Amino acid sequence: MQYKFSQLSELDSAILFVWARSEGENDYSNLNLDFDIATLAAEEGFKGKIGQEYVVRALSKPTGKIILVGVGTDSDLKKGSARKAGVLAIRSAKKLRATTIAISTLDGFEDEIIEGLELGNYHFDKYLTKDEDAFDGVKNVELLFAKTTAIDHPQIMAGAINYARDLVNLAPNDLYPESLAASAQEVAKFGNLECKIFDEKELEEKGFNLIMAVGKGSIHQPRLIHLTYKPQGPVTHVVGFVGKGVTFDTGGYNIKPGASMMNMHCDMGGSAAVLGAAKAIAELRPDNVEVHFIVPSAENAIANNAFKPNDIFRGYGGKTVEIHNTDAEGRLILADALAYAQEQGVETLIDLATLTGAAVVALGEYTTGLFSNDDDLVARLQYAGDASGEDLWRMPLTERLDELIDTPFADMKNVGPRWGGAITAALFLKRWVNLDAWAHLDIAGPAFTESEDPLGPKGGTGHCVATLVRFVEGLSKED
Ligand code: BES
Ligand code: ZN
Ligand code: ZN
Does the C-beta of 420 come closer than 6 Å to ligand 1? Predict the structure, then answer.
C-alpha cells in the first residue's frame, strides 16, 4: 500500500476510519461534522468494543463514509487491539471495494495500526485464475497522522510476516527444499546477508545424516540454508534462529491418516518464521546483534530408499538415533541444524518448529509452547511476544521424562510414549544443545489457521516472525 500524510481539511470525499475507545473520552470535534456522531453511535449501541463498527454517511466535507472502529479499553490496547482494529478497517474497506481509505491517528498506536492494515490487506491468490473485475485490495492510505510519524517499521514488519505467509501458502509441489533455498537466496541478495546453501552432496559429505535420512525418500533432495546478518558496528550479541523446514510431512512409512496429512505443507512454518525474520532484520539493520538464520529443509516422503523404523543414524552432532517413528522427523533435521548452529559461535539459540500435535492438544491452536533452559531468555521472548500480539506459554522440560527417549541400541530414540509428547520432543532437542541460553518454540498450533484469524485469512499466519524481530531489537537496544 502507498501511504500519504494528509490533513482532514484536504479531503473532499473519503472512506474515513476513526478509532474509538470503549472507555474514556472519544473526541470527534476535529472531524468538523454538522451532527453529533458520538451520541448517534451510542444511541445505536456502539460502545467502541473490539470488533465493533459504526458506519455513517457524512454529507458535509469530507463526504463519504465515516466508520468508527472499536479498539476497546486501555488494557485491550496494551494487548494489541489496535493491530486488530487495523485489520478490521481493511476488511470493511475491502467489502466496500475501496481502493483508497483515510485513517485517523491514535496516539502511540500508529505503528500497530499500520501493521494491522498491511496484515489485513494480505491475500494469497497465486493459484486463482485471474478475474478482471476481481477487487485487488486497498492501494492507498491517507494518514491523518503527524507528518513525523515513522511508518517504515510496521511496513517492514508486516511485509516480512506476509512473506512468511506466502511461503507457507505455496503449494508443496512448488515449495520444496530447493525452491525454499532459492527464496532464501533472494532474501539474502536483496537484504545484503551472507548466504550458504548446502545441497545433498555437501550434506552427505559433511555428515548431516539425520537431514539426509528424512529427505532421501523424496524426489526433492534436502537442503540446509544458512543466512547471516552482521551489523555495521560492534557485535555484542550473537544469536541463532533455527526453523524446521519440512516442506511436506506425509509421516513417511509411519504414514499419517488422510485427515492428519491434509495441510502438512505447513510443516515448514518454523522455517517461514526464521526467513521472515531474516527479511525484516535485513531491512531494519539493527545494531550490535549478529544473527544466524538456519533452516534444515526436507520433504518427508515414502520410497524404496526412504528411512524406516529401526534404522540408526549418527547425527552431525556426533550422537546416534534409532528411528522408532518416521513421523517424528522434525526433531531429526533440527538436531543436525542445532549442532551446526553451535559451530557458528552463537550464544543464544532459538529453534521454531511445527513439532508436535501434543503441543496443540496441550495449548490449543493459538498458543506457542515455549521450552527453555534460561529464565531470562523466556522473559525476553515473552516480552517480544506480548508486543507482537503473539501468545507464548512456558512448558516444562521435565527431567524425569528424559529417560523415555533412551534405547539400548543407540544414544537415543526419536519418540517417547504418548503422554507428554511435546515435552519428550523438546527433551530430544535438548540432547543436542550445549548452550546455557536455548529456547524451543513449538508452533504446531499457531503457524497455520484453518479459518479466518483476527489478523489474517485462512492459511499460513507468519506466526513468530514479529516476536523474533522484536527479540533482536530488544537485544540491540542494550549496550
Ligand atoms: N509435523 C508434525 C506435527 C504437527 C501436527 C504439525 C499438527 C502441525 C499440526 C510432526 O512431524 C509429527 O508428525 N509429530 C508426531 C510425533 C509423534 C510421531 C511422536 C505427532 O505429533 O503426532
Ligand atoms: Zn511428522
Ligand atoms: Zn512434521
Answer: no
Catalytic residue chosen out of the listed positions 65, 84, 331, 413: 331
CA of 182 to the centre of ligand 3 (A): 22
Closest to 464 in 3D by CA, of 359, 387, 396, 361: 387
3-class DSSP state of 189: helix
pLDDT digits (tens, 9 = 90+) for 96-136: 999 999 999 999 999 999 999 999 999 999 999 988 888 88
Grid coordinates in use for 326? 518416521
Domains by residue range for the chain, with CATH:
2-144 (3.40.220.10), 155-478 (3.40.630.10)
231 lines ligand 1 (CB under 6 A): no
Q: pTM surpassing 0.85?
A: yes
Residues facing 245 on adjacent strands: 297
Sign of CA dihedral 333, 338, 343, 344: positive
**pLDDT over 90 for what percent of the chain?**
92
Q: Which residues pair with 407 in a beta bridge?
A: 410
pLDDT band at 310 (very low <50, low <70, confident <90, very high): very high
Distance 210 CA to ligand 1 centre (A): 17
209-227 tens-digit pLDDT: 999 999 999 999 999 999 9
The predicted structure's pLDDT at residue 479? 64
Q: Ligand 1: does its nearest atom lie under 6 Å from the Cβ of 444? A: yes
Q: Cell 505467509 appears where?
A: 165
Q: Are β-strands 312-314 and 320-322 bridged in parallel, bridged antiparallel, or unpaired?
A: antiparallel
- Which residues have a beta carbon within 5 Å of ligand 3, which is an ion? 246, 249, 267, 330
Q: By the 8 A CB rule, do 7 and 94 touch?
A: no
The reply to whether 84 belongs to the active site is no
| Cβ–Cβ < 8 Å for 113, 85 | yes
Residue 191 CB coordination number (10 Å): 18
What is the radius of gyration, based on Cα positions, of the chain?
A: 24
CB 139 within 8 A of CB 100: yes
Asked if residue 267 has its Cβ within 6 Å of ligand 1, the reply is yes
Chain mean pLDDT for the chain? 96
